[in-house]
Amino acid sequence: MARISVPTTARLPSTLRVDSTNPAVQKSLSRLSRESLISLALDWLDDGSLPNAIPFLQRADDEDEDPDDIYPPCQSPDELRQLYLEMQQQKGSKRDVISRILEGDWRHGLTLYQLAMGDLAYFEQNPTSQKWSAYQILPLLPPSRNGEDEEILKVDRKSLTIPRFHPSTFLQNLQNQVLPDVKTHYQFHRPKDLPVLILRIFVIDSPYTTNLALSSRDGSGTAANFDSSRTVYIAFPDGVPALYVTKSQSTGSTSSGESKSLQSLIVDGVPKALSRPRERYTLKSSNLTSRNLDAILEKKGSGRTNSAGGGWSIYSDEKKKQSPLDTVLPTPPLSRESSDSSIGQKRGAELTPVQRAAKRAKVIAEARFGESGIVTDGRGIERVEIVLQDTFPSIRALAGDDDYERDADQTGDENRNTKRRRSKIDAVIREANSLDDDDDDVVMEDAEDAEDSQTWTPTIKISFQGAHVWAGVRQLVEAGIVDGERMPGWMTGEDGVTTGIVRHGRIRGHKGSGMT
Amino acid sequence: MSSVNPTSESDLLDEEIASLKAQAATLRKNLKIETSTILSAASTHTILQPSAMTHNLRRPNPARKKLLVESDKQRAYMQQCLHRICSSVTSFKVHDPDPNAVDGGHILGLRFEVMSRGQFLRPYYVMLNRPYSGSKHLRIHRHTLPPAVPLAGLAARHLPARRPGSDEPPQHDLDRFVRMLRREIVRYHNRLGVSADLRRGLGLHDQTAENLTANDIVDVGIADIEAKQIRFTWADERSGRVVMDDDGKVLKLMVFGKQGRDWETTKELYGNYDRIEDVAKRLREYAQG
To answer: One GO CC term of this entry (chain B) (predicted)?
Structure first.
């Protein structure tokens, strides 16, 4: 126990111990598998992290051993290391390891550092355990003042600078943004197989940076203190001015409003921490949320795939080298030869109409999705929400139009169909062209809505859910359930968003453009 | 010994099969190359031309027709390749498969060639469309550029969007946009190349743990998004950083020890550097003591 506890604005030290009887500690350890528990303990005993994770050892002058002690304390970290290495070879239950850690070697409590490592080990074990939202880092113009003391901040669209991120400077600045009645603990971590740097932020409501902030020993009030703690992760991807934030997770029961406010606090504080004198940045949500970091890294990562999704992915494929020095005629991606060889049919063989339709559907799916939306690519997005704001097709158009009736004979009057479709597209384009600009188009659209109030615009929300949403859509196209030619572009996932508003058949804000 | 024989025999056969397969693959590749060369040759084209074979006009030869089509395709492709080799930015037309695409799905594609160590890499693509009614103003639709290239800023400068309040059309300069963009791409790749050169120049590949001294550099890496900063680490955990400008000229050199800035080493390494090769040379001299 510290002698005096003075409220400060410093961060929580890594060596601060949490009582090992704390249910939160037990909960966080019991999530891990036996193997990761042992390797975690070995990591704690590593020379680099030992100062922050000192185990309970027998003192040299302390001779009186407790005979009832099930886990007699070891003499040195080396001995302990040996012990855990042996445990790695043996078989046993997970519970034994947990009780060995909590009641034996770290009976005096786990440090915040150890808890952070435990949480991060859990993240390595279950990479999809967190739900990430992607944000873009955008430069701001120098603020202009409008008479009063209010600063107007505008995004500098013409800026060519790309923000730089330096972990320790960032942390220092972030700490300055933290309010004095909240204490935080930070831990950086680099996952093994992802090009991101993860920052774990552990937040607790306390003015103290000492044991007082955590201890559950004195009376009734402080145990609730740990319950109010929350954990937020921020991931900094390599080579891209973006970051991913998770929803905060509390150990106790907190209202969703509270955790939301913490996230917004972080979203407010992070750009300030990234900014430097005369160089300001802001965060902009990119409407992309997923549990799969790989999927987010594809859409907001450092590669070529950021704004070339769906069918455009054929242009971003790094493996295909199209050197102009190679004079061999490349086989176009959709040519008969390439598709034939993959399906494995003889060219001469007559195809039944069903087979031909299936093959056609497959080729169309290839055209619309390119290399994306493959079930096994490990880039599945689990939830997509789209709001449709297009006007309902008028009754007159519906009456004679089989465009919207799936059971109509589609092959019979293909010509008529395409003709009408084209005219409809033209109308949509004309409409779109009448109001086009960057992103402050709300006013104009409202005006237009008032103009043709006869048309009915129902608000339709479509939600796709599954293990890999875009792969599912692709399979529907391949199976011929969704018409691949008439399917709108946002159904291929090429806009790289998981929530969006569709107007005129395209995701709004993007205007069908990969630029944001 | 007898037990070894059958396995070695099967191994030999496997080896032979593998080598034959490799040979077949090379031959097939050669065949393709030779076909394309023959098809694209001018003399082949004149032979295939029906005008030279007037007596065949009555009885059109389907095989010849097919060959002619193939030859035309090949020649077109060769011409495209030639353009790509000679000018590093080429354009092409594509069709947007989205039925709701603006401007009927007409897309102008730009292809930016990048080279590294004498080889053509996969080009970068920028797709432009025309979403504005009645005007020819372009807008970026899709692209495959890395985030290190400030595409959005360049587009805002040279291909500005029409502001909602103003009537006057924005000034577009596609030519300038393309030139600036290509410059940024090439600069970025050159900076990447510089850090690779530094790594090679310091001989990081042929180092072993035994012959390492405290002043040897063990790691060189790029420290920021735009590849303008290079980080290097000495064997005794001191780390340094080189800051370059857009064109890869050295601006600053800093050294950090375990406790903040290491002014000693900074002083020793201080010099008027122009290119990263000078830094590599100085670092090598420093390592040798």
So the answer is: nucleus
